[in-house]
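TA notes, week 10

Several of you asked for a full example with nothing omitted. So below is the full record: structure tokens for the whole chain, then the designed sequence directly under it. When grading your own attempts, check the secondary structure regions first.
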């Protein structure tokens, strides 16, 4: 068969590797650490690119505080002081950001996901994992959160999430993925980026939204001497939007496609770390602090579901 799924050890952790045996396209997922995608390799021509920047050892992956490639649910980014108001009630989340000021990046990171399904078909292979959120501090709702990762014959990697409200009350929810992308042995200054947006979210000194402003760049622009740590309101064509990370020297472009439209991925965070060796490109279903400002926030009714898909490919 073209595809195979291998269960193997990564130190004391267990990971599942899904790969295309023809060309080496592959990804590795660690269920015990929030179903994080630890490794993703995609081929362009003769070169197999390892496009995710993640901690290289099991211990460093466990200790990672930068949320590399992590799944962020039921909220992403910051909630100031961990406080929010929803349907007439006040809630207090655990303030887990460094310094103990804000709540950040949700409640499923580093938790042990259960394996729901492995599937190998002639044109793709996939793995589905889930985590049951129930009566968490500051989030007294019951939600089954699941993610399906897949790889197809055309070298397209996809991440599809689903959140099913199992409780009796409506609950707030947003989802984001937090990958850091790498293209070969180049630094950020060698790359260009094309961000599908005309509008940037303005932040205060604590990275909390204050409003919006025009985004001046149109089309691809160089990251040379450009530092980004911004949230964007996505402009879409049809029901998708595409961010491009471009290496002209290597003649390769990474496309990050996110579903858009009602309840989908209508926001995007882009961050260039001080190391300048990768770029975080993070599709979000809602704005930063959406639990308070409501911008893009999904409200899931009892026994209702939300879902969305992000895809990656090289060209």
């Amino acid at each position: 068969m073209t595809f195979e799924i291998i269960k193997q050890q990564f130190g004391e952790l267990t990971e599942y590797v899904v790969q295309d045996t023809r060309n080496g396209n592959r990804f590795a997922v660690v269920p015990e650490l929030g179903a994080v995608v630890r490794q993703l390799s995609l081929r362009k021509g003769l070169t197999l690119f390892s496009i995710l920047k993640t901690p290289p050892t099991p211990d460093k992956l466990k200790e990672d505080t930068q949320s590399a490639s992590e799944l962020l649910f039921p909220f992403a980014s910051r909630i100031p002081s961990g406080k929010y108001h929803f349907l007439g009630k006040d809630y207090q989340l655990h303030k887990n950001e460094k310094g103990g000021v804000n709540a950040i990046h949700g409640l499923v990171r580093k938790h042990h996901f259960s394996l729901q399904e492995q599937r190998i078909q002639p044109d793709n292979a996939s793995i589905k994992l889930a985590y049951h959120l129930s009566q968490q501090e500051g989030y007294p709702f019951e939600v089954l959160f699941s993610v399906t990762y897949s790889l197809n014959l055309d070298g397209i990697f996809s991440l599809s999430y689903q959140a099913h409200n199992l409780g009796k009350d409506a609950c707030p929810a947003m989802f984001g993925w937090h990958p850091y992308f790498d293209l070969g042995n180049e630094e950020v200054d060698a790359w260009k980026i094309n961000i599908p947006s005309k509008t940037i979210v303005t932040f205060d000194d604590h990275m909390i939204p204050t409003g919006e402003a025009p985004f001046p760049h149109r089309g691809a622009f160089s990251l040379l001497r450009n530092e980004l740590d911004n949230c964007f309101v996505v402009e879409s064509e049809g029901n998708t939007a595409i961010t491009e990370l471009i290496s002209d020297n290597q003649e390769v472009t990474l496309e990050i496609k996110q579903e858009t439209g009602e309840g989908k991925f209508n926001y995007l965070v882009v961050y260039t770390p001080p190391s300048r060796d990768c770029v975080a490109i993070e599709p979000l279903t809602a704005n930063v602090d959406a639990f308070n400002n409501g911008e893009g926030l999904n409200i899931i009714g009892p026994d209702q579901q939300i879902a969305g898909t992000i895809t990656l490919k090289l060209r």
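The chain has a mean pLDDT of 95. Use that as a sanity check on your answer.
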